[in-house]
Amino acid sequence: MYPTSAVSAPRRSPPAARLAVRRAYRRPGSALRTALCLGAVLLLGACNREPLYQRDAPAFGQRMQLALWGLQPDVAAQQADAVLAEVARAESKLGNGPKSALSAANAVLARGEPAALDDELREALQLAAALEQRSDGLFTPAGPRRAVAASDASAVEAVPPVGPARLAEQQFDGNTLSGDVAGAIRLDGFSHGWALDRSAATLRRHRAFNALLQLGDVALAQGKRGEAPWRVALPDPSGGTLAMLALKPGEALGLAGVSPVIDPRSGQAAHKTRLTVVLTPPSLQAATLAQVAARTAFIGGREETMLYSGNYGSREALVIATDGSIYVTPGLQQRLEWKKKPSHLYRLR
User: Fold this and answer.
1) pTM (predicted TM-score)
2) Which of 70, 121, 254, 281 is the most exposed place for a label (fewest CB within 10 A)?
């Protein structure tokens, strides 16, 4: 005779045995249900967690901020590494540090000799020269002409500048640059946007199509943040955030006035407005155009904002006047989420 078991003879078991059998059956099912419920909770948590990866690092004396959407963390980290490497390389080309390619060219020009450029630096300088020609002299990467050599400090102090040199007036002979800028080429008003445009191209090559890139006074959007657009903050010169703006894919935003902007015509800080914001449409040079447009319009003043921003392809802008009044184009106004409601808001024409 086979021994009595819970399977073969459950009816013959006493009440205590039957209760033990029921408990024995319930334990596996209960454990399974618990495991399934726990798995469902973990899965739900994973689904609710945003696939957002963020990094920041110093660059050009500012902070480079990067946000990537929709990538696995390890893949996003690799893409972020590639972007930050590209920005560091851009700084090694166009930065003002002693080891940059631009500084090396400046040192040669300061000796009155032609400077040899690599292809990338030549292309950047030629683009800056082309953008300079649209600005009526309000944007110029070249330093002032002087009647004496820049190395003679005492003579430089005694002889005033004779007007800003134009980068477009310098001579490009293939990859050789010569002219009378006395080694003073600076691309501060150009380099942030140039670095972001090249970073965006790096991401596209790696098939990362949803990112927000910000460097100093420029922001560039690629794709979206899931189903929502990327959003950036517009600063209030008095402190805090004035408004939030949702960027469309490919758009770039340039700001001027957060830090001093030098008017190349006088060598003094421009002061016609407190803040200028320019939005440029999608293009391969959107960030570069946004930075140059914002600085040029800031120097030109409120009355000239639409003229100079339009020279760089922008139709949307915002200006905070010296008295705190805000002027904004209708198209941009419709897209702003105000954090501080303006007391005086006017149409920018």
Assistant:
1) 0.81
2) 281
Sequential DSSP letters for 279-313: EE-SSTTHHHHHHHHHHHHHHH-GGGHHHHHHTTT
Dist CA 292 CA 194 (whole Å):
10
52-65+212-347 CATH:
3.10.520.10
DSSP E strands: which ranges in 70-142? 115-116
Q: Is the pLDDT of residue 222 over 90?
A: yes
Residue 318 contacts residue 326 (beta carbons within 8 Å): yes
In which band, very low, low, confident or very high, does the pLDDT at 181 lie, cut at 50, 70 and 90? Answer: low
The pair of structure tokens assigned to 307 is 């003229």
Task: Report helix, strand or coil for 12.
Answer: helix
Question: Closest Cα to residue 265, out of 132, 157, 93?
Answer: 132
Among residues 234, 314, 243, 304, the alpha carbon closest in space to that of 273 is found at: 304
195: tokens are 């670095």
| Domain residue spans of the chain | 52-65+212-347, 96-178
Residue 218 CB contacts under 8 Å (≥ 6 apart), including other chains: 192, 193, 196, 252, 253, 254, 255, 287, 290, 291
Q: What is the pLDDT of residue 48?
A: 53
Question: Does residue 186 sit in helix, strand or coil?
Answer: coil
- Name the more confident of 283 and 13: 283
Q: What is the mean pLDDT of the chain?
A: 83
Position 81 confidence tier, pLDDT thresholds 50, 70, 90: very high
